[in-house]
């Protein structure tokens, strides 16, 4: 029984290492920050709150919420219940409205 647990632990460790390797290759997870170059750290996404997006885009919270409901902008993720928007989300949103002018 003891031997079976050791084999299972070794297998789980190998699978976890492979998953992390694949995620790092795809850029979804950064390696240890100590081993990352400054370029890699600069590429890590910055997430913005609703207030920060409103300040950057110069719109009200009501407008942002209305545009979220319409699908013009969608959050990248949530921290608890608070939506967070990436730079890419904001750029897409701005391009959408700049192209209409």
Short descriptors:
single chain, 101 residues, mainly alpha, three-stranded antiparallel β-sheet, 5 helices, 3 strands, 60% helix, elongated
Can you count the helices? 5
* Spatial gap, N to C terminus: 70 Å
Low-confidence stretches: 30-41
* Number of DSSP strand runs: 3
Q: For the report, how would you describe the main beta sheet?
A: 3 strands, antiparallel
The overall pLDDT average reads: 79
How is the quaternary structure best described? single chain
Biggest sheet: strand arrangement: 1-3-2
- What structural category characterises the helix and strand content? mainly alpha
Descriptive account of the structure:
The chain has helices at residues 2-25, 38-43, 50-57, 61-70, 87-99, and strands at residues 47-48, 77-79, 82-86. With 101 residues, the protein is mainly alpha-helical. Strand 2 and strand 3 (82-86) form a beta hairpin. It starts with a helix and ends with a helix. Residues 30-41 have low confidence and may be disordered. It contains five helices and three strands; from the N terminus they run ααβααββα. Helices cover 60% and strands 10% of the residues. Strands 1-3-2 form a three-stranded antiparallel sheet.
In short:
Helices cover 60% and strands 10% of the residues. With 101 residues, the chain is mainly alpha-helical. The model is unreliable at 30-41 (pLDDT under 50).
Reconstruct the topology from this structure.
Blueprint (H helix, E strand, L loop, with lengths): L1 H24 L12 H6 L3 E2 L1 H8 L3 H10 L6 E3 L2 E5 H13 L2
């Amino acid at each position: 029984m003891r031997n079976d647990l050791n084999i299972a632990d070794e297998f789980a460790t190998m699978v976890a290492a492979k998953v992390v390797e694949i995620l790092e290759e795809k850029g979804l997870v950064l390696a240890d920050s100590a081993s990352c170059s400054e370029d890699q750290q600069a590429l890590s996404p910055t997430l913005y709150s609703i207030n920060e997006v409103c300040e950057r885009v110069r719109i009200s919270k009501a407008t942002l919420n209305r545009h979220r409901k319409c699908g013009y902008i969608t959050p990248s993720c949530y921290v608890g219940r608070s939506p967070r928007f990436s730079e890419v989300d904001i750029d897409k949103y701005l391009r959408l409205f700049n192209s209409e002018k």
